[in-house]
Amino acid sequence: MTALVHTDGEVLVHAPGHLYSPLPLKSEPPNDQIRPGELEANEKQFVTDLIRFLVPEALTNSVDDDPMPQPIVVDGVQYVLVRNIDQFPHAFRIRMPGDAHWFYPDFLLWITDRTTTPATQTLCLIDPKGIWQDLRGGWADSKLLSLLYRLRVIEQQCAPDGTVTLPSGEVMRFRARGVLISTTPFQLAASSRTQFALAAGRPPVSRRSFERAGIFFKDDGYIERVHDYLRADDDWLLSWMAELATRAGTPLGRWFSSKISAGHDEAAWLGELLRAVLPADGEPQTRDAAGERLQRYVAT
Amino acid sequence: MNGHQRLSRSLLLRDFLCHDLGLNLASARERSARAEKDSGAASAASSGDFVEAVIKASDHGQQERVRLCAERALAACRQAGFAPRYFQFLALALADHYWQRAARDRETLLADFQRFHADWSRDRRGGLKVGEVNAETLQVTAFWLATGAGKTHLLHASLVLLRDQPWGRILLITPNETLSRQHAERLCRAKIAPVLCYPDDGDASAIADASADTVIILDLAKLRFEKNGAGVTLDARAFSGKRNLVLVDEGHKGQKSDNSTWKAIQHLLAGIGDSQTRHRGMLIEFSATFGQVAEKEESFDFYASSVVFDYPYDRFHGDGYGKDFRVANIRAARILGDETHHPVLAGALLAFALQLERYRNESNRQAWTEQRLQVEPPLWLLLGASVVGKKPGKDEELQLSDVMKVLQFLDQVLAPEGAAWLAGHFDALGREGGLRDEHLAWKNGFANSLTLAERVRALVFGYRQGARLVARRLREADKELGLGLEINGTVRYFGLVNVGEVAGLASRLGTLGWQVEEENLRGSLFRRLNQGDPDLTVLIGSRMFAEGWDSYRAGSLTLLQLGAKEGPLVIQMFGRVIRFAGAGGDMKRLGQPNEAFRPLQTAYVFGLKADYLNVFLEGLKANGLPTEVEDVEIRIMDESVRERLILPVVAVPDLADFAVDAVGAGWHDYLTVIAVAFDTGIKTMDGGFAGDQERVGGDVTSRFQALVPLLDQRRLVLRLLGFRSRKGWWNLRLDASGLISALNSDRFELHGPEALVRVEDDDDLARIEDIAVTVLEKMLLKAHSLASSPKDCWKFRPVRAGEVFPSKLQRLKVQP
């Protein structure tokens, strides 16, 4: 079988760490087509970048004819990736806030860290061509809020106390993270409609703030920053989103709950809140500074 | 290599235009398809995403030119009243560039084209060569689009792009009167140009009197080189000697030797190669089957240098448009003796009954509604010999005998003991009779074939004990014979025969002891069927259905007595049955439908003659469709890993768990503002934060709201109730005051040109009603989603085999 990097014209490849093998790639006619779930160029690039980052040697090794898929394990941390197929009957999907449609992220990645007690499993939703069309909805973008906010609801419902008990009896801490990867370079995205939609009266948004919200730009070293984001535990933005998602459990949750009672559109409120708290160019990135902005916003 | 493959690899004009524009076609396809997939065709067209897609796919220095033709193409679609699919958009953008250059600097264009042709030929080592490019080449443009891919829309948008040039005459030539009327109706509605549909709107003198910008629509049978005595035929020479614009729907016609006169007529009308430059017009052809006619060398050269864009059936199908299909290739050995059509018809009937069963299944309906799919009530279409016939007398005879066979079959099925008779056929049916897994599974789910036969009779025909089959002539529709069941003195129609002449059929039926009765009811059953009456499930048809009939209903196609050499026509008939409305009208089928839904997005084609069906399948292959599917086994990570992966799964709330009230004033106050755009977006390339997007038109919300009192509230409620029932949302309440209040609210913004909200006649009023319905549907969709999403319930479970990921892959082999 052809390894992922050696794909000259080949439409079936082996990707280390992927839940099943082979993985199909998209081809232009007149070549054979494989379905379902073929990877287009950006998706293939992401999988390659991820594997190369985790196990640089995996892509240069030769591959057996019919390799058995195995997780990637690095320093006691296990990685399993799977292609999430749009509209597939049991694919993972989230109802997008403020929208009547479903969002099917392109990939699911499970990172299981057995060096902690109990073990920690992070379910990561990854969309490698996430803002191809720019963030037209500004911070109220439906995909973005699916990952920033709706995922918190999912965490709280699946693991009310932060842990889940597997059928085997094993207890694991459960977290969920999501990233959108922009195929447009930062320089372009930063200068056009995206900024226009996001800023609305505030100074332009820095790369750091995009990354804070889980939006990454495909350039040197992006995969490492994505990885750090997925693994990080002390994210103030996500912890506030979790408070909002409780609705009644915290003061912030109650404030939000009062705003969206009677079915008010949560997406619009969340978009405004993000605009207010995410640091603009030149503003301090600390939790405290953002906390002050949040307090000011809530007070008004 | 067959004609299709040869032609699709040799599209000289298309390659030239891409080269001339610095456009990477593969990238443009990919990007614009992606834009359409991400936000829908309407939004991709109005937001500027399509424009952006082609700009990103073009060379840096050429981007302004690309933008210009892309925007002109979109504006033309807007004026023609549709949001283009990505392939329609690309086709029009390339064509516009070609036409603009041809109008401005013909000589330079020709020189550039010839230079490109020389380079192109040199680069094709031993490949196919295309003949000379000359001044005549520039007079012809062809669009090669799969049947079902929206050719009519493309034709109308082309008219918009070309109408402002100084033409002597604008002629639109169609294959038949039905299609002429369809074009006329749509052109009138879109207000593209004055329309004269011949002979409905006037005689030859009306044509002579028509203004130069009038689009004269006529079918090809009306044109001859000589005025003959048939009454409505016209002498083609009367149109020559002017610079005419000639648009030909189904342009593949006339490439066969016996049709060469017709080709000559086209060339005469368009002044191809006319000795006088000022008489040289333009010929624009549209067809799905240029590939088949390009078998001949001469046609190959002609179309290689005139096809501006290709979107053949393989791409159409590959992009997920239209239904999937299953063709039953009944072996010749089974076709012996006079009764041989019974097993074929029984198989087709069973396959169709399963579609109806799935259509009427309530939980199935809920599932597809949730996925926003529109599914029309399935229809069994039976087409006979008349679609092929050459000699009218023999044709009529053959067609009648086919229709008779079907009617006799129905007579047997619907006789008091018909269930037992049908059960006998069902018993004998298996895979070799054309049944698929889904049919066998369904069949095996019944205690015995008799129960199945009874179920089929009830499903398809509404049969009840004591019912009697009746055939009735319709007073106001002389081409229709209504088929129904009389139960307790009341006739309920389940279908109709649509043939050229009912009288002949009625007398033939009479000799067989049938009593053909008269129906006093007004109107046409065909119209009712076309409007979606779900009780009408069977249509036994004739030639008119082969070309142009635009309906999503046909789900099963049974073909009777067809000749062996009718490739293009076969593809046309096939086109009737593979149309699919998709989600929100996007024409796309589901990539991975569940088994309950699959029959509703699959066309089942049964045929009587094996020789013919082989040609049919060959025709599909020739049309580039990968026909061989091979399973690819996959290996899956060990269960010990999988059972430790946490997968959250959502359970959506039951409709009983929430409700939406769109009743009375103010129900909508909590919604955020919804933007409804009917305009064309134009963007400048300067970048910058603000003001980088302009729109043609503006906010017309208040002008629209001023018209709300003109709306017929009762009709509005009915249409929204229709929407509610399509969605299956019984938990949504609405009333007239709620709808009117929403239309008068500030919860939506309507963008568009002024003309959108100008009311001068009934057509305009109909448009205002359409806008109102669009606005209200969007508001109700949002309200429903907002009410339902807080009740979503998430649980986790481990990753099981066959879930989340497929259990196997499929390789679609493309013919070498």
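Chain B has 30 helices and 32 strands.
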